């Protein structure tokens, strides 16, 4: 089992077509054909693990509302343990990101969310759930969307508690110091640059220097930096590996980072070395960016890519 801890978001997609511009304002008029929901934010990591036939558990927050009940039901349908999902009444609704997509292009996105830090009772509930899950867990993913679940103090507490377990972090720059002692972080280049306090330059030597800085500063085993059209760079403590992008067509990068950390962690948990895990995650990212919306990749799709 892999435990995912972080900010649960509902991804809502409104699909349609555009054939005219509104006479009221210079904006496209979308004729809606379909509306659907997907688990998003940290819960999208769970979707990706399910696509890999990997059992999981989700720890996070939802509101006492219909979207929150949908999240719990959907996690159960994916056979993901949801005992660590805390339901908050009234003051904290379930976070929702709504994307309007016409002809495979996103027209606009609007967010409904609450970003105040989670309260101590919520963290206590999640911590108790984690302790119960640890005996059957092979790894833990901290998926930090900066929405209040993973506060610096809670992150530090979790990493100290987890000890020698595989701890993978999808980070936010404002929480950099709290990730000290994790196994691996998987920032994109913009995030990595901010975390290291240097310029955002997508050249191999520069990215390697960033990775070494973060590796040393945070006492990590690995740093995996995603670099958009230039693929990924893995630093393993002694050597940097620059992995060219595997993407053939790029339609939508939404959620690609969730795929990367899910696949990389699943590979480490099954015993793959870090370079093999990074190459596999790179192919998985190539699969999902060729799809529209928050997508996942199965082992068959990855191996056939």
CATH fold-type name? UDP-N-acetylmuramoyl-L-alanine:D-glutamate ligase
Low-confidence stretches: none
On the 0-100 scale, what is the average pLDDT? Answer: 93
User: SSE order, as H and E?
Assistant: EEEHEHEEEHEHEEHHEEEHHH
Q: Mind telling me the C-alpha Rg?
A: 19 Å
What level of helicity do the residues show? 25-40%
| C-alpha geometry | globular
Per DSSP, what share of the residues sits in E-state strands of 2 or more residues? 25-35%
Give the class from helix and strand content and strand pairing.
alpha/beta
* Overall tally of structural domains: 1
For the secondary structure, the number of strands is 13
Distance between the termini: 26 Å
User: With helices defined by DSSP (H or I, 4 residues minimum), what is the helix count?
Assistant: 9
CATH architecture: 3-Layer(aba) Sandwich
Strand order of the largest sheet: 5-4-1-8-9-10-11-12-13
| CATH-assigned homologous superfamily | Ribokinase
Biggest sheet details: 9 strands, mixed
CATH top level assignment: Alpha Beta
Summarize the structure.
The chain is 34% helix and 30% strand.
Describe this structure in words.
A hairpin with a 6-residue loop joins β2 and β3. The chain is globular, with a radius of gyration of 19 Å. By secondary structure, it is α/β, with parallel strands linked by helices. The strands form two sheets. It has a nine-stranded mixed beta sheet, with helices on both faces. Strands 3-2-6-7 form a four-stranded mixed beta sheet. The two termini are 26 Å apart. The mean pLDDT is 93. Helices cover 34% and strands 30% of the residues. It has one domain (2-9, 39-94, 114-303): UDP-N-acetylmuramoyl-L-alanine:D-glutamate ligase, CATH 3.40.1190. α1 (42-51) crosses α7, α5 (189-196) packs across α6 (204-218) and α7 (256-269) packs antiparallel against α8 (274-288). The longest helix is centred in the last third of the chain and has 15 residues, at 204-218.
